[in-house]
Amino acid sequence: MNSAGDIESVLLVAAALLILAMAASKASGRFGIPAVLLFLVLGMLAGSDGPGGIEFDDFDVAQSVGIVALAYILFSGGLDTRWIDVRPVLGAAASLATVGVALTALITGLAAMLILDVPFEVGLLLGAIVSSTDAAAVFSILRSRGVGLRGRLRPLLELESGSNDPMAVFLTIGFLELVTDDASSPLTLAPLFAQQMAVGGFVGYAIARLAVVGTNRIRLDYIGLYPVLTIAVVALAYAAAALLGGSGFLAVYIVGLVFGNSKVVHRASLMRFHDAIAWIMQIGMFLVLGLLVFPSDVVEVAARALAVAAVLVVVARPVATFVALGFSTFGTRERLLVSWVGLRGAVPIVLATYPRVEDVEHADLVFNTVFFIVIVSVLVQGTSIPLVARFLRLDAPPTRPEPTLPDVADVMPGSTLQELEISPGSAADGAALLELRLPGGVLAVLLTRGDAYFVPQGSTVLRGGDRVLVLADSRSLPALLRLFQDGREVS
Questions:
Q1: Residue 29 counted as domain residue
Q2: Residue 418 Cα distances to 39, 229, 407, 460, angstroms
Q3: How many domains does the chain have?
Q4: Cα separation, 94 vs 103, whole angstroms
Q5: φ, ψ at 152 (rounded to 5°)
Q6: Is the same domain home to 355 and 319?
Q7: What residues make up the domain containing 420?
Q8: Considering the domain boundaries, does residue 319 fall inside one?
Q9: In terms of Cα–Cα distance, which of 175, 142, 151, 168 is closest to 249?
Q10: What is the DSSP string of 234-257?
Q11: In this structure, are 353 and 413 located in the same domain?
Q12: Are 175 and 120 in contact (CB under 8 A)?
């Protein structure tokens, strides 16, 4: 077959897998099965052990695909996270993302050493690999299934899952060095962790602030170039942080968090674009990781892997959660729910490729065990989150997604949809829409106030915190920003 034929075959297979993934996501909503699990199973069925017969065993490629995909998934997660919601749980989330992850790794690692009969260092390595909750799995299940949770639980879980990957990566790399280098010492891990977090946090915040200013000032001629710009920003943040010795995952999550909570042109369309990118990355990552697995090998370790998974879910995660939240105001029932939503997903599988790439002893056993643990976690915990929340009386009405708006810019040529937030104390705060004397050619399309959406009238009084969707051209935007966000009185 010639090269053109090879490319066409690859495109045909990729298109077929994506379409099947779409069908799987539809089945996920209907039968209550997490979509990420179906994507994994689809990849396994397409692999060499399944009817698809696709032979794929390149762990280096799978690792690279996983890293890139996770970067964009974490950016999208940060983009969707409202700072006003997560600020009250920042300390609790930070404790879960550090102390919680370390304790989970230690307890699970000790259990793995005994159950799998492997050396102490290998047991700790496996514990580190499965120590963090997975952002892709948590974001997917909480948002796609509309799971409603009371109070501060949802922002806590989303912030934890988005910020605890750096600790898991750090522990995995650290324990991998202990396994492969006899001269390494656990004492070297502490400064490495401090460096990873400090550099990753600084690089992420610095690039985020520059990206916000640059996006607002660059004035690109084509709207379609703004998503290209943010794609480049994500790649820059991850690469710069990693090359400087920091955590690239932490950097991209911070970029998303800052970018999503700043006033940026085309913010609404950028968020929709990156939501789509996150889904593509999630599907592609789980399909590739599914292709990498030989189900027959996983079955061989099923009994022992199930025992390790039981320790992780029933002992390690709850103990780590109660200790990490020991000084927080979260009650027992809330801590039990946080323990149960400790979903494992793509991150552990990606990290499990590290020992395979380094050709560590027992690497195959570690990889297959981790894969089985992920399947058990997503299948058991992921499907039962609504039931457990209801049992603990912590459920809330399902969150309603924001309405998808049509592209109506063609009504006013040269205009685009802009979503602007009314700042408290600005000219618009407390003023009726008619009093503001909006610039010519500006149309207020939709007003969002809390969970309510309605079309504003001239007599509608705006309030601080309202979000107004306007149809305007780029020349009118500075005047709108002065009215909606500057602390000036209406003249």
A1: no
A2: 35, 18, 11, 19
A3: 2
A4: 14
A5: -95, 10
A6: yes
A7: 409-485
A8: yes
A9: 168
A10: HHHHHHHHHHTTS-HHHHHHHHHH
A11: no
A12: no
In this structure, the answer to whether residues 333 and 380 fall within a common structural domain is: yes
The full DSSP string for 380-421 is IIIHHHHHHHHHTT-B-PPPPPPPPPP--GGGSTT-EEEEEE
Q: What is the pLDDT of residue 232?
A: 96
| Phi–psi pair at 298, nearest 5 degrees | -65, -40
Integer Cα distance of 241 and 180 in angstroms: 25
Q: Which residues of the chain have pLDDT under 70?
A: 1-5, 27-33, 135-148, 182-188, 397-415, 474, 487-491
Do residues 318 and 175 share a domain? yes
C-alpha atoms less than 13 angstroms from C-alpha of 127 in its C-beta half-sphere: 32
> pLDDT tens digits for 260-316?
888 888 877 888 899 889 888 888 888 888 888 877 778 888 899 999 999 999 999
Spatial CA neighbour of 123 closest among 54, 61, 175, 196: 175
Q: Copy the structure tokens of residue 419.
A: 């979503």
Q: Please give the Cα distance from 382 to 376 (Å, whole number).
A: 9
pTM: 0.72
- Same domain membership, residue 351 and residue 316: yes
Q: In what order do the strands lie in the sheet with 416-421?
A: 416-421, 467-472, 443-449, 452-454
Would you say 336 and 392 are in contact if contact means Cβ atoms under 8 Å apart? yes
**pLDDT tens, residue by residue, 63-79:** 888 889 889 988 988 88
* 442 and 357 assigned to the same domain: no
pLDDT on residue 188: 66
* 414 and 376 within one domain: no
CATH of the domain at 470: 3.30.70.1450
Instruction: Please tell me the number of Cα atoms within 13 Å of 427 on its side-chain side.
Output: 17
Cα–Cα–Cα angle for 378, 383, 388, rounded to 5 degrees: 115
Alpha-carbon distance of 332 to 141, in angstroms, equals 23
* Nearest partner of 441 among 479, 415, 406, 467, judged by Cα: 415
